[in-house]
Structures are given as C-alpha cells and as structure tokens.
Amino acid sequence: MTEEKIIEIMEGTTKILVTEKSIKEKVPPKEPVFFNPVAKLNRDFSILAYSAFWKNFDKPKIFLDGLTGVGARSLRVANEISNAEKVIANDVNSKALTITQNSAKLNKISNLEVSENEACRFFSLFSKKGDRGSIVDIDPFGSPTKYFDCAIRATMHSGLLSITATDLQVLHGLAKKACQRKYYGVPIKTEYSNEIAIRLILGCLNFVAGRLDIQIIPKFVENDMHYYRVYAKILTKKDQDDNLGYISHCFHCGNRVVGKEITENCIICENKLHSAGPLWIGQLFDKKFIISMMEEIPKFVVDSKCEKILEKCELEAEMPVTYYTLDDVASKMKRSPFKIKNVIKKLQDAGFIASPTSLNPTGFRTDCDIDNIKKIFEN
Ligand SMILES: C[S@@+](CC[C@H](N)C(=O)[O-])C[C@H]1O[C@@H](n2cnc3c(N)ncnc32)[C@H](O)[C@@H]1O
Ligand SMILES: [Zn+2]
Fold this sequence. Notes:
The protein is α/β, with parallel strands linked by helices. It contains 14 helices and 15 strands.
C-alpha cells in the first residue's frame, strides 16, 4: 500500500482520494482498492435522486452504503446533500475505508462513519424496525442479486433502495443459464436488450421482496455501457399489483407482446415468438420523481448529460413497455434511417402516443404496432 500513489480528485463539490492507477489505467484495478472514474455519471444521478427523495421526507435521513469502495458515493451524499443526517460507508476492504476516512477529513465531513464488514452482515445490523436506513445502496462487482434480501431488510418502510449491476454478459443473454440462476428470468437479444436487463433486475428484486411481504415501486432507472442502475421505493406491505410477466418478441417482423403469460405466435406474421422473463412489466419511472430530480439540478454540480437524460425519462415515464429503434425499423423496411424527431411527430400526427427513450438515442416508444409504424414511415 505504501508504494501506491494516492491523488485527490473532485466529483461534484467533493474531494475524493483515489489511487493514481484507478485514474490512469484503462480498466481500474480492484487492488489494493477500487475506484471507477467512469461511474461519476451514476453518482451524479444518485445525488439528484437522493436529494429529491429526501426533500419533504420526515423520517431519519440515513444513508447505508453497503459496498462503498473508497467512499465516493457516501462522501458525496454526506458533503453535498445538506439535509443528510448520517452516512454509513461499509466495505470489507480496510484499506479502502482508511482512504474514505481521510477523504472525509479533507472535506471536513462530520456525519460519515465507516464500517468494516461483509455487506450482508452490515445490512443485518440495520434490519430491525427503527434501525433501518432511508436510502440503501448496493454497488458490487458484477451481479447485485445476492444482496437483495439483506438490503431490502435494511431499508425502512417508504425508503429508497438503489442498485448497480455490472454483469452485462449475464443480463444480455450471453449466459442464459447464469441469468436464470441469478435473476430467475431469461433474457433475449433484441435492439432493446438494455430495457430487458433492467426489467430482469427489477423482476428479481420483486420476487425477493414478495417473499418478505414487501412491495417495490421503481422510481428511476439508467444505464450506460458499463452498468445498470435501478432506484426503487420499498413499502412494507403486500404487493396487490402483479407486475411480473414476459416480453415475447418476433424476430421476423419486430412485433412484441407484453403480458402475464408467454405468447407463442406472432399475430402479425404468424412466426414463432421468443420470450424474455419472468421480468418486471410495470413502469420503470415515476414521472413526479423525475421532475423533482430535475428541480434539484441547479443545487448541484452534475454532468450536463443528467438533464438531457431526465428530460427523456419524463417523456417516456408513462409510455408502453419496450422501445423500437430507427436503425432496426429502417433495416426491416430496407430504407436509410429516419430522424427521431420526425418519427415521433409522424406517429403523434397519426393519433398514436410516441416519445423518445433515455435508454437509446435512436429509440422511441409508441402504442403503434410494427405494421402500422412501417406504413406511417412509408408516407
Ligand atoms: C464496485 S466497488 C464499489 C464502488 C463504490 N460504490 C463507488 O461508487 O466508488 C465494490 C466494492 O465492494 C467491496 N466488496 C466486495 N465484496 C464485498 C462484500 N461481500 N461485502 C462488503 N464489501 C464487499 C469491494 O471491496 C469494493 O470496494
Ligand atoms: Zn411477426
């Protein structure tokens, strides 16, 4: 550790001590401590989401960070969100926690504690009613599902649980069996694979929550090339809604059917459909929450991408499950791609609902089926 060079970087308005290697090397090393500078965007989103969540929240504002690394998210929550009461940054790696403490001193943070424990043991210390966190985060290497149970138990009624998944190969269908084992559902490879991945994460969370008589309500989701993030409200009551189901996709014509059961055949072209699931088929975004995240932007120093992405989230919040992409529709029509703005206007003028999607720059959501999309695009 002595030979490891530590440098100071700035994220938001927080100084963070990290190893020089984690900034200089293409893939940040896991040893002696892990820090990924590319994950800054998702930490920016966390600041907006957590600040929006704690606005008008009348219970203790306690953040439990189960896998904190060098403490980047925790330090930012403690330093940047003015009403944060207590932040507990946990990791198994004591070296990472020493760095976290040094960063806390550097920022004169007084409301952050560190904890050295295995994540599930850590969360178990906060599972009793009255001791739970109002915001709980799990950000592991790879799949987060092994922490779902203990993290849900450590989240108070009406609290927020945020989750990162980086096992993209599993979620994208390169290892279907592994996906079924870890997430209880199987993916299919489509142009909207990232949406399927997010729905598999939420589907598994819903399964585990259901076992504990807990309801989840997704508030916000986002992804980039390296990770998925989901934010869900936790309610300690039985879920009366059934939001688990399947997405059945036609690889021939591009049609998709969303429902509680698998659909076998395409009603448009009669070919066999391929299904992903069981997965979450309810809403991914809470429109009001997205608007309140946008209202938080002026208070913080965050990437300008946040606003652009949130604007799209607001538009797509109440739109149908799955999106189409310009490239895919154009290639099915053997035409060159169209412009997203024109496409959305054309669909709306034809009486359909249509929006862009935050999950793909050339993606759009609509209640128009693929046959009619093609007809509308022809004109
Ligand atoms: C992806 S990093 C966390 C990054 C951090 N949240 C951030 O925003 O910079 C994962 C961390 O989990 C820690 N870790 C791995 N397994 C763990 C376990 N079972 N319990 C607690 N921490 C664990 C590792 O030491 C590592 O620091
Ligand atoms: Zn079809």
